[in-house]
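Subject: Sanity check before I submit

Could someone independently write out the structure tokens for this chain? I want to compare against mine line by line before I put it in a report. The sequence has 241 residues.
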Amino acid sequence: MTLMEQTLTFVPQAAGVLVAATRRGVRRYNMDASSTFRASTGVVTASVVDGIGNDRSGPPVMKLMADNGCRIGATRGPLAGVLAAAAVIEDPGVEDYHPDGVMVLAVATPGEDTEIGWVGDSHIHSWDGKKWVLRTSPHTMGAYLRQNGDSGRAVKHDNWVRVTLSTATATNVAVASVPAGEPLLLLSDGLDEVSPAKLAKLFRKHGDDHQAFVTALVGSTSKDKKGYRDDATAVLLVPPV
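---
Independent answer below. Compare away.
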């Protein structure tokens, strides 16, 4: 049996597993933020917010949105969690920088399917025992064109985000569910270049060392031909039992 054919299993834990890692790109400020929360009910939540732009005042706002999403999501679900994060920037304040971003949020209840919600182009994958399965579809013009049969032009519009936290409403926040017990990986779009094969290889390499896995993952990307590298953030959530 080769490394890629092995099946990894997780040791069930009543409290679940929550680990995170982030790495700044080439710009001055890391505009990614993540948060995790363990509720008294046994619910665990995780979120990643990928901020738009690059400004000194941006990172604390992104962190506040990530925290709000996790706290509210734990009691009211992912739709309410995403909208609670969006409410933070309903009034952008008097700063020149108007904060905005995209978000993914997961809410795991023991013994039940995990609920997820998102706006924008960050991602959630789940481990089905053999491979990572993409559970979100990006809110980009590129994705929209592909869904409507125009794949030829799509690649030129993958960076055109159609829904962000500043435009999030109850009707355009996407929600879905993931089979109970499947570990989830929440990623900012700075990890888009990591292929499913590379993702699985890193995962199998680090086995049960979850922190080593997400740390290696965010460190695995390189600069593009123009010398640019985006911020990268990953959160691993193993649902509680």
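---
OP: Matches mine. For the report I'm noting this point. The first strand starts at residue 17 and ends at 23.
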